[in-house]
């Protein structure tokens, strides 16, 4: 069985075991991953964070774009998926952490995040947990950093607008289902101020 098919099965198994936590039956397509990462400056980043890394669809592309001395901290709450990520990527720039995204701050050693890539299924998470994670995002971001959030509905948009000075949205159609991509920054662009 090739890796692509094996990943889909692993992902589906994780979904069946915990549907609200995984929130999707398929990993993000490589087209949507590229569309998402094109919204941020990964090559210029010193610290990149990934929340809900799953089987690593974003991880691989982030590592491919990152500079040699940058660092990627990838959080994944599912123990089996975190183990898979650990085994799959033999890259000293990557630190896989099996923990909940609400504890992100504890894993950054005080460094601020330049690009945050978030694939958490916010609409199916318990409301208290969703709020705690969302409020953590602007807190850990560097002043000129960007949080890239992928969702399967626009429902989270008002919450992102409340937390960030600027939220840009685009849709990536080459994904099942089509994905809403949000690029969130702390400050509004100069022309909007
Ligand atoms: C929609 S999947 C995205 C997986 C992968 N990034 C992708 O795009 O294919 C969401 C992932 O978030 C993980 N997750 C859910 N809640 C989490 C939490 N509180 N902290 C960290 N990871 C979490 C799930 O286990 C799952 O792997």
Task: Describe it.
The chain is of the alpha/beta class. The chain has one domain (28-188): 3-Layer(aba) Sandwich (Rossmann fold), CATH 3.40.50.150. The protein has helices spanning 3-17, 19-22, 30-37, 57-65, 79-88, 127-140, 157-163; strands spanning 47-51, 71-75, 94-97, 113-118, 141-151, 166-172, 179-185. It has a 7-stranded mixed β-sheet, sandwiched between helices. Strand 6 and strand 7 (179-185) form a beta hairpin. Helix 3 (30-37) crosses helix 4 (57-65). The protein starts with a helix and ends in an 8-residue tail after the last strand.
Bound chemical compounds: S-adenosylmethionine
Order of helices and strands: HHHEHEHEEHEHEE
What Rg is obtained from the alpha carbons, in whole angstroms? 15 Å
- Euclidean distance between termini CA atoms: 54 Å
| Number of distinct beta strands | 7
User: Biggest sheet: strands side by side, in what order?
Assistant: 3-2-1-4-5-7-6
Assign the CATH architecture. Answer: 3-Layer(aba) Sandwich
Low-confidence stretches: none
Structural classification: alpha/beta
Instruction: Report the CATH C-level class.
Output: Alpha Beta
Number of helices: 7
Full CATH superfamily name: Vaccinia Virus protein VP39
Major pleated sheet: 7 strands, mixed
- The percent range for helix content is 25-40%
Annotated CATH topology? Rossmann fold
Beta-strand portion reads: 15-25%
Average per-residue pLDDT, rounded, comes to 96
The tally of structural domains comes to 1
In one word, what is the shape?
Answer: globular
């Amino acid at each position: 069985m090739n890796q692509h098919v094996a990943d889909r099965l692993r992902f589906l198994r994780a979904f069946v075991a915990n549907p609200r936590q995984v929130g999707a039956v398929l990993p993000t397509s490589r087209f949507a991953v590229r569309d998402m990462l094109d919204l941020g400056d990964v090559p210029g980043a010193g610290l990149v964070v990934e929340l809900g890394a799953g089987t690593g669809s974003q991880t691989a592309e982030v590592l491919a774009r990152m500079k040699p001395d940058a660092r990627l901290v990838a959080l994944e709450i599912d123990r089996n998926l975190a183990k898979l990520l650990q085994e799959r990527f033999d890259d000293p720039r990557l630190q896989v952490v099996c923990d909940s995204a609400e504890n992100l701050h504890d894993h950054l050693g005080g460094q601020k995040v330049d690009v945050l890539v978030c694939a958490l299924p916010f609409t199916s998470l318990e409301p208290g947990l969703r709020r705690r994670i969302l409020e953590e995002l602007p807190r850990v971001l560097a002043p000129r950093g960007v949080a890239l959030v992928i969702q399967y509905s626009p429902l989270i948009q008002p919450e992102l607008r409340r937390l960030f000075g600027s939220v840009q949205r685009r849709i990536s159609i080459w994904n099942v289902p089509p994905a809403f991509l949000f690029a969130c920054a702390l400050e509004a662009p100069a022309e909007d101020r």
